[in-house]
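Question: Now follow the chain.
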Amino acid sequence: MKQFFFVILMLFVFYSQWALASLPIQFWQASSGARVYFVENHDLPILDVSVEFAAGSSMDIPSQSGCASLVQQLLSLGAGGFSEDQIATALADVGAQTRSHFDRDRAGIVLRTLSSERERKQALDVFARIIQFPEFPQAILSREKERTISSIKESSTKPDYIAERELMKMLYGNHPYGFNEQGEVETLSKLQREDLLAFYRAHYVAEGAVIAIIGDVTRLEAAAIAEKLTESLPSTGQSRNVPPVAIPVTGIKRLPHPAAQSHIQLAYPGLRRSDPDYFPLLVGNHILGGGGFVSRLMEEVRQQRGLAYSVYSFFAPYKEQGPFQIGLQTKKEQSEEALALTQKVLKDFVLNGPTEKELVAAKQNIIGGFPLRIDSNSKILGFLSVIGFYQLPLTYMTDYLVAVEAVTTEQIRQAFQRRIQPDGMVAVIAGAME
């Protein structure tokens, strides 16, 4: 069996050695204090850059829920003397694109541009304005507030959204991870431009910035880019630490809904990104419910009993304990039976762990699929951002498969027993039988 995994590992190395060997991650701090992570790759005339901050929804305060998300949305909608249309035109003129990232911990923006001098210079000039000089125009703010409020109201009629919202309230209570990432209708309607400016000044600061760069530039050019993107940021702000997550009060909420199917979700505080149990839980969850049709939940709930079309589980690691979730949909009249079976499968898995056969199959799937997770510059950029933000080892990408291969059935069993209490989970059935 060891020989089998050795072959898999060798195939992986051959397939992606340009990413893991010939393009090592370089790290330094810019003069502004920003942390920079760089991979030099001249295979294509493309440059990808991301800048991220500890400015996710957990940095909101309850009375201003949604402020963090609006700040991130409006960064590129008016900055440095450029209007929304002028920003879009200047980027389109050189074939550049931006996209955003936002979650409970992080907020950031990504630029992709050609690496040729004219195109790169113009794109980076616009990008630097967006990051360092956002203006939050009042008309744009009013428009985006209304758009977000309309989206929340529409989503609030759907059973999956209702279940997710209620589940996070039960799981986190007043903890910042329990805030809706988009915000609340009541708080969004009260937000003013001054609130966004204050949030930006407090959280979009150089000392907390993480810059990831990959593509067709040299180390010297990458260093100049990092300086340009952060030289005018406030040096320090008022970012605060996310508090520890408390164990929730267990319970099940049954919420009526006219939908034909019930949406069932269960949750428990999961793991931190830096958790020493990260890899046993990663592999174990693949076996339990993260591996699609080969997972144990899928086999027991769908294949054997026909109680759901799909059922899944996942860990969402953050600075503090992100959620461990299980979700499924089923006919209303089957909802209680499906919930009971899901709980039974989880209890058995936590008690006994996986079989050796399940472990072998999971490792094969994870190791075999890993090259697809790093087969483009944009995907590697995502890894660089995670490594930088959570300050993981620079060798994280090369260590990943070694850590997966080393996981044992006993490590999985012990990790799940340490981290997950099946009888302590919270659960929601949206679309319960009345």
Summary: The chain has 16 helices and eleven strands. The chain has two domains: 26-229, 251-432. The domain at 26-229 is CATH 3.30.830.10 (Cytochrome Bc1 Complex; Chain A, domain 1).
